[in-house]
Design a protein that fits this description.
Shape: globular
CATH topology of the domain at 65-236: Rieske Iron-sulfur Protein
CATH class of the domain at 65-236: Mainly Beta
CATH superfamily of the domain at 65-236: Rieske [2Fe-2S] iron-sulphur domain
Oligomer: single chain
Strand content: 15-25%
Number of helices: 6
Structural class: alpha+beta
Largest sheet: 4 strands, antiparallel
Radius of gyration: 37 Å
Number of strands: 11
Strand order of the largest sheet: 2-3-4-9
Distance between the termini: 117 Å
């Protein structure tokens, strides 16, 4: 009899079983709360992520140290001191950096831009002569296109090349042939295939020195144009500075 009663209560609805047993059910519309977590969590709220301690990570000081280490690497070549290149936008300067396996020095054209890049540099380094007509780009005309692209135009044939890193010497205009001089240059160089200009990464130090980064594997210069001119003229070597004397003494000591 007891077993039958227990089974009957088990199959009844919950509210009815409580009434028959004489108990009052305690019902609540609230669910059990989430367990409390120790510590201060972010709970996924934006802006509440755990921040690294002050002084860690990539900050201005670490960026400056990395830039200084970059300058100390051998792939950065000093090509001009402060004042060698004019401060006016469009100023140009021919410099030597690197040489071919045959011993011929490479000539580059430094161009002063009108705006600085993210590294604070406003100097470009491109070919020494135009890829279309071989005219010196030190006579080129600096400008900016409608989209803001920095460019240089050959003053002889009119060909125009991009100076922006993103476009890496891209040809903007090739032998346009406008006017008698450009028309003549176009006819003389009609067999040349369109070719982008060379463009080197550049840096300007806080002291105003200009550096270029040559392609990997480029040989360093052994003799400058001034050295070769002195040899041909038979004049003695120019007087050395104190720093040059120290370097010469160190090189001589290593050779022994």
């Amino acid at each position: 009899m007891r077993v039958t009663a227990i089974l009957a209560l088990a199959t009844m609805p919950l509210s009815l079983s409580f009434q028959m047993s004489g108990l009052t059910p305690i019902l609540s519309g609230e669910r059990c709360g989430a367990p409390a977590m120790k510590g201060q969590g972010t709970r996924g709220m934006p802006g509440k992520a755990v921040r690294p301690p002050t002084g860690s990570g990539f900050n201005a000081a670490s960026k400056k140290r990395m830039q200084q280490r970059d300058f100390s690497k051998s792939e950065w070549t000093l090509v001009a001191n402060k004042g060698d290149l004019g401060e006016t936008a469009g100023s140009t300067l021919a410099v030597e950096a690197g040489q071919s396996p045959q011993g011929q020095n490479f000539i580059w054209t430094l161009v002063r831009g009108s705006e600085t890049d993210e590294d604070g540099c406003n100097v470009f380094a491109t070919d020494g002569s135009c890829r279309a007509c071989s005219f010196p780009l030190t006579k080129g005309v600096y400008g900016r296109e409608a989209d803001g692209t920095a460019s240089i135009s050959c003053s002889s044939c009119g060909s125009k090349f991009s100076l922006d890193r993103e476009r890496a010497g891209e040809v903007i205009q090739w032998l346009p042939g406008e006017g008698p001089i450009q028309w003549m240059a176009k006819n003389l160089n009609s067999n040349k295939e369109q070719m982008a200009a060379g463009l080197l990464p550049t840096r300007v130090s806080q002291a105003g020195r200009i550096y270029v980064r040559l392609p990997d594997g480029t040989l360093p210069i052994t003799k400058t144009a001034a050295d070769r001119a002195a040899e041909l003229s038979g004049t003695p070597d120019p007087p050395q500075t104190a720093q040059e004397k120290v370097k010469a003494a160190q090189a001589k000591a290593k050779a022994k």
